[in-house]
Amino acid sequence: MIIDGKKIAQVIIEKLKSQPKPEKIFAAILVGENPQSESFLKQKEKVAKELGIDFRIYKFSEELKNDDLREEVRKIALLKKVGGVIVQLPLPEHINKHYILNVIPREKDVDVLGERALGAFYTGRNPILPPAVGVVDEILQTTNYKLQTTAVAVVGRGFLVGRPIAVWLMDKVKELGVFGREGNLSELKNYDLVITGVGKAGLIKPEMLKSGAGVIDFGYSIDENGKIHGDFETNLPINQLTNQLNFYTPTPAGTGPILVAKLFENFFKLISFL
Predict the structure, then answer these.
(1) What percent of the chain has pLDDT over 70?
(2) In whole angstroms, what is the distance from residue 4 CA to residue 2 CA?
(3) CA distance linking residue 49 with residue 234, whole number of Å
(4) CB 13 within 8 A of CB 265
(5) How far apart are the C-alpha atoms of 87 and 70, rounded to whole Å?
(6) Which residues have CB under 8 Å from 123's CB, separation 6+?
(7) Global pTM?
């Protein structure tokens, strides 16, 4: 089965449309000139328009220093009319992302990236899941996948994808393996489900996986020709992939659209508490 991320995302969006239209602003922080970040924000802006949400992008120069950017984000986050805040990553190299993210109040942290929101998530007390975790949960529900008897491998330990997903899975699966990008990926043959978010095109080949495995791919990289690739190599004929695997997410149109939809689902949940 090929997971249709656009279809799953649209189901989430249609459910959100049935809820009262938010009166709060969804604020997005963009620092510097980054075409890829601007492209991601346009995708979010498109969904916001569909949902009737006031989505505002606040742009700042990459020349800003840590303290100055933190103060600007703090002022935006504390506005009463703002119900949710995201900081589009990556930030310029001289900016300490954690220093900036930690200024967002937990009750407005839609991405669950600040220390207070993350701490609450790690202890099971946060009202929303990190969007990447929400994507995995949504795909598993859609496919009626049972985790209790499953061996799951998470490839990549990043704080956006690998780390929160691994923590969420710990008490839900039979066996959990966590691998870095330089780990011994030949061991993936032992796992029923592989979740990857490294951002290295073609890192995982179909022949590295056991027959009947599932793949959830968050990897995202662009080659010199502008083509988008995931971590999972999908150059084989589609029928060969679908015969070998239980399911997999393509790139693009796999996890990406669901991630955006989950972000807005989080926004709706958070503003219900304000």
Answers:
(1) 100
(2) 6
(3) 33
(4) no
(5) 11
(6) none
(7) 0.96
